[in-house]
Amino acid sequence: MSTPALQHHDHADHHDHSAHHHHDHARGASQRTLLIVLTLTFGYMIAEAVGGYLANSLALLSDAGHMFTDVAALALSFLAVRFASRPATANKTYGFYRLEILAALANGVTLIVLSVLICIEAYQRFRQPEDVQGWMLVWISLGGLAVNIVSAWLLSRSHHHDNLNMRGAYLHVMGDLLGSVAAIAAGVLILWRGWRWADPLFSVIISLLIVYNSWRIVKDAVNVLLEGAPSHINPAAVEQAIREVPGVRAIHDLHIWTITSDRHVLTAHIVVSSADESCRVLREVRELLARRFHLAHSTIQIEDPTFATVVNFKKRDSC
Question: What average pLDDT does the segment 9-31 reach?
Answer without folding.
Answer: 50
